[in-house]
Amino acid sequence: MQRRLLHHRRMNTATRTSLSSRLKQETRPLHTRVEQSGVMAALLRGRLSLPGYCALLRNLHAIYEALEAGLGRHPVDARLWRPELSRVQPLEQDLDRLHATPWRTHGPLMPATVAYVERLTLLGRTEPVLLLAHAYLRYLGDLHGGQVLARLVSRQFALDGQAGTAFYAFGDPAQVEALKADFRAGLDALPLTTEQADAFVAEACQAFRLHRQLFEELAR
């Protein structure tokens, strides 16, 4: 009987879907809808104005400030939070380069961004591990689509070389692939119970919904 129980436990462990796989599978429909929403759809179709793009960066900057402040206050696996991933300073470089006026005072935040920042701030105080669900959306999304978006943005706004696209710069292709692989491995190494993993995936889904709301507001 004991041998059968041990075998059963090993089978459960072997067949359990990894957190990174669950996140990819269960957020895929939301991911598609977000890409087709509001300002992001306009950007991908080459129809976004430069002021509209700066408004997007301004709001993302506020989100990253809250996210990275929360991550910096808690012990986090280095694969999930390291200096190379931080996007606050690159966003500031791009906004300084592209925004026609002082962006901190002339770039109002959308209601969706204010709500998102409040959510991240709350998680940082009460459930910091769930901040990593938002890090999953942002950092892996930036690493996956960054090079394509960098070329698109540079061409659409006639930028000189890499000027104005620091947000998408994570190093050479080998470094980008290493960061992606490390991030997934870090996610899969999180010591979560089944209930905690469910909450993590649910939080990632909510992050996609919050992004969709923001992108729709920016398009109005």
TrEMBL record:
Gene3D superfamilies: Heme oxygenase-like
Entry keyword Heme: yes
Chain segments carrying region Disordered: 1-29
Bias (Polar residues): 12-22
Basic residues: compositionally biased ranges: 1-11
Keywords: Heme, Iron, Metal-binding
Domain of life: Bacteria
Keyword Metal-binding among record annotations: yes
Database matches in SUPFAM superfamilies: Heme oxygenase-like
Name of protein: Heme oxygenase (Biliverdin-producing)
Organism phylogeny: Bacteria, Pseudomonadati, Pseudomonadota, Betaproteobacteria, Burkholderiales
